[in-house]
Amino acid sequence: MKNSIELCHPLRLPFYCRNIDSRDIDLPGGWRTHYYAEFFLLQEGRLQIQLDREEILLAPGDAIVICPGVKHQAAQAGEAPLRLNLIRMDPDRLPELPAYSPGLKSIFQEAWREKLPMHISAAKAAEMKLPELTSQCIREAEAQRFGYDLMVNSLLSALCMAVIRFWLGQGLNLAAARPEERPIYSLTGYIQRHLRDNLRVEDLAARCGLSYPWFAKKFREVYGVSCKDYIEQIRVAQVENFLLYTDMDLTRISEETGYADCSHMIKNFKRMKEITPGQYRLKHRQDGTD
């Protein structure tokens, strides 16, 4: 029995990096739209991608960018097995670009509005070092050694800059890139920056200028989970890193990750991971992953 690719609604970290082999994992079928950007680098086989009304056939070595909010679907083309590098990244949660640059999500969306090519040929992808960058991202994300998140963010920045420079060569007008005017579509970055604060769903709804019921409905529609669960998932991901890479006690970790108290953190961690924080730390240290 093969597994399906994790849909990643939401991204617990700002990124999700994985090598996909169709002999082990099924591609999800049907149309999808998500708030994060997606990047495929095909290594073996042929992959049929439909971006809105545009159909693209990827051959080995080809790459494709799927911008946030773009309706798309992917399917294996032919009988040969597929193997590809998959990168998913939330532009609102990645490190900020220089002050002179528009935001990363704004650039992606402007490239799509200008109908710039999302398909990158194998020769161009090799010139842009995309196979190496995506493979390094996957190795770092899977090994999870100390500082892996910093390393992946750095590699993703290089990947994004390579793609943006490719688009600039195709006529991208950065001056036309405009920030998202609807706050709910850029809320993940705000939550990331204020995770240690007392984040209340009611306050986030007010920040977006929406009533609580409408905000709750819209947030689930955009991000795939309730706002409360999204915040909890991001916090638990941070708790994991503190457990793995520090000797902080649980009370200090709960303070660093924005929990009201330690018992609340333990309860939510166990609910999501089916193991207590203490057991998690002990297990992974016995496995030699610290």
What best-fitting shape do the alpha-carbon axes yield? globular
Report the helical percentage. Answer: 40-55%
The oligomeric state is single chain
Number of strands: 10
The ordered H/E elements are EEEEEEEEEHEHHHHHHHHHH
Mean pLDDT: 91
The neighbouring-strand order within the major sheet is 2-9-4-7-10
What ranges have pLDDT less than 50 throughout 5 or more consecutive residues? Answer: none
How is the biggest beta sheet arranged? Answer: 5 strands, antiparallel
Radius of gyration (CA) equals 20 Å
The count of helical stretches stands at 11
Q: How much beta, percentage-wise?
A: 15-25%
Structural class: alpha+beta
Report the span from N to C terminus: 32 Å
Task: Describe the structure in brief.
The protein is an alpha+beta fold and 290 residues long. The protein has helices at 104-113, 122-127, 130-143, 148-169, 187-193, 201-207, 212-223, 227-245, 250-256, 262-273, 277-286; strands at 3-4, 15-21, 25-26, 37-44, 47-51, 54-58, 63-66, 72-76, 83-89, 119-120. The protein starts with a strand and ends with a helix.
Describe this entry's structure for a reader.
The chain is of the alpha+beta class and 290 residues long. 43% of the residues lie in helices and 16% in strands. The protein has 11 helices and 10 strands. The chain has helices at residues 104-113, 122-127, 130-143, 148-169, 187-193, 201-207, 212-223, 227-245, 250-256, 262-273, 277-286; strands at residues 3-4, 15-21, 25-26, 37-44, 47-51, 54-58, 63-66, 72-76, 83-89, 119-120. Strands 2-9-4-7-10 form a 5-stranded antiparallel β-sheet. Strands 6-5-8 form a 3-stranded antiparallel β-sheet, with no helix packed on it. The longest helix is centred in the middle third of the chain and has 22 residues, at 148-169. The protein is globular and about 55 Å long. The two termini are 32 Å apart.
